[in-house]
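Support case: user asked for a sample of complex input and structure output to validate their parser. Sending the pair below.
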Amino acid sequence: MNKNDNLSEWYHNILEKTDIVDSRYPIKGMPVYRGWGLFMIRKMQQILEEMLEDTNHESVLFPVLIPEDILGKETKHIAGFEGQVFWVTHAGENKLERRLSLRPTSETPIYEMFKLWIRSHNDLPLKVNQSCAVYRYETKHTRPLIRGREFLWNEGHSAHVDEKDARRNIEEIKRIYKKLINDYLCIPFIISTRPEWDRFPGAVDTFAFDTILPDGKVLQIATVHNLGQNFSRVFDIKFEDKKGEHKFVYQTSYGPSFGRLLAALISIHGDDIGLILPPRIAPIQVIIIPILFKESEGEEIINYARMVERKLKRDGIRVRLDNSDERPGAKFFFWEMKGVPLRLEIGPKDLNENKITVVRRDTKRREQIELNNFDINSYFEKITKNLRTTAEDKFRKQFLTADNLDELKTHTGKGIIRTGWCNDRKCAERIEEYANILSVNKKQRRCIICGSDGTEILIAKTY
Amino acid sequence: MNKNDNLSEWYHNILEKTDIVDSRYPIKGMPVYRGWGLFMIRKMQQILEEMLEDTNHESVLFPVLIPEDILGKETKHIAGFEGQVFWVTHAGENKLERRLSLRPTSETPIYEMFKLWIRSHNDLPLKVNQSCAVYRYETKHTRPLIRGREFLWNEGHSAHVDEKDARRNIEEIKRIYKKLINDYLCIPFIISTRPEWDRFPGAVDTFAFDTILPDGKVLQIATVHNLGQNFSRVFDIKFEDKKGEHKFVYQTSYGPSFGRLLAALISIHGDDIGLILPPRIAPIQVIIIPILFKESEGEEIINYARMVERKLKRDGIRVRLDNSDERPGAKFFFWEMKGVPLRLEIGPKDLNENKITVVRRDTKRREQIELNNFDINSYFEKITKNLRTTAEDKFRKQFLTADNLDELKTHTGKGIIRTGWCNDRKCAERIEEYANILSVNKKQRRCIICGSDGTEILIAKTY
């Protein structure tokens, strides 16, 4: 499996072989999440939810169905989504009186309830989040975890007394997402302000987190929106302030896509052998493989391996002893493909010297060390740091500057290109069009990411 | 809130006041799960999934949508569900070529993939489980957590080489469910074989877990099905055995309803004050309330309370210090209503003597003890045991025997009634009808639960 020659083939192959998703389910854009992939998605979810709960977010779960009249309340919002909505029209033998949509996102149902939950300034800020699937009828080419018709995410929603507090929340969320994406998943990214014509439908401002995959194309992995009072005015979400006046709340909403984060993690860290997983997210962090030369040594080595396994388990490590009948070489191959961060080999020499042989998945470095000196957390830290810096080095090289159209031509498709701009949509479209003309495949989507000062713009091909 | 006079009113009141669910969401039978309730559902899910993973179940997640042709493959199965299915017919502006159902249960989509995943006897047994929402268009009266149109459960599915292994799995699942329901949730139940006319659509045998709510009505909380080869024959799920022959697998499926388990837990353990939660499932296990008489003592007491909080947190206890401006009495009232198992009061006397005052939610008993002698796990065990035995005592009293029709008349509506039977559907219907005629409200559903030997039958009104 050569990753650099054909990322797409490598990616599909690895998803199937390592039990991430099975794309053969008979609905386009709706794969089955399998054990190895689902574990990592739920681990991300758990890490994120803990940080959200620490910042006073309530974890809730809203129904998957939204009545048509509620979904349609905010004009710009529904205009942005209506082409993508799945509609439930019948139940049993009955035609429903009003159509019900599968949620494409949950601003509208959640704010319908915010109206009931918010009475006074004492109820604010109100912050909720839910981890769930959302549904969008994508007509574009679908790609597992990256662009599907059912995808898993966490969405947060907040209401505040004023714009200042809403903006403070946006900064807090950016900090939380940065921690998840960078500290835990080792994925480099940039945060940028989306141009006015590319905002979330109904938002005043949209901030996006983008990373770059090894093929030079950009993947948007999370967004944070400042909704101003756009939704509170149509959903009539008011609070009584300290003076007894009734005012509309200010709102924000935000969400990372767990599928896209997983896709980025797989594509950025993986190699020709298979997955390379950051330790904090890996379903199995340590695989122990006994190396038996003679039958007679078997029992002693297995007992030693079991003792090591128990010791690690006590420390809360996700460890497994592979005691199957396969040859060690086959086991090495399998668990390397699955991306397990550390392999412990335990053979007669290790047993006799009270040592273990430790092999890192990322560097493939092998060392024999005293069992008593084995500091697993220091290994995990080193692996995490190495994955992060390797990915950041690559990311920096994919971050290019074009001072003229020729350079734009050279750089197109190799990452994010920074170039001059006159702070105007037409100008952006010309740049976009120029880059597009230069692309090998005209069907590839482009992407405009605006700098904050209006004098420069970032452009890239995108998933 | 008087629980015994009007269970239904008490129940709805408590769901709203303690943030379990909000039923005001504008679709019938689809409430919003709020923080306090969602935590407990996810805790049950976590406990269950860990036991399932320990018995080699893979955790998967299938799409919520099932194409009509796949849902309809097993004739009896679709006949049992088609009146209850929500149908997606449109997406964006398009009418879909084939209708897609919201899963009412997932035998059909999962077995469509089992066909691809199973090749040889080495792939068996195959056991998967998913925690998800399922959708049924209930035309009956809905009731939050008990009967809804969207409900949360875990469903397990297995495939085996022979019937013996399938039956062995059924026994293992019964053991796992028993552990969740009895050990963790302290809910008493009986397991019975459902009569032939009340089996899961497509099953060879259905085993049901039923509990009794304080109003004498029965609530089915989990089921386990022996599917035989009914599904493997229509979904063409074959394996190659050791002799190279191709055979259809034997299958089982099973699921508890998290909503119903939560409803039972709330209704069975609660009292007029509010919830009483088993420690292992409670979102907050210990609430610490500082008692300040004089302003001057404030800081010292708060520091002492914080020290106790930190100590408990280090031990993995879900603890909160309520340091708000409310009076202690108001705090007691609030956290008792929420069902927190233990309250620690910390006042000047506690501080001076290095003690704490411990108040149990279940018995309301208060004792002052040395902080160094405070063994929290022993408290949790005592509370758990007390909740379990109290519930079991009540349950036994609701388990009645009728030796004649007069006794049947007297007992109807007071629990599960055991009575004679001639092992025949007509006979069961006569008993059922008789009990029904005697019921105050003719609309209440009845329930037949068969004994295993065909000479006796269990009958009850049911939710």
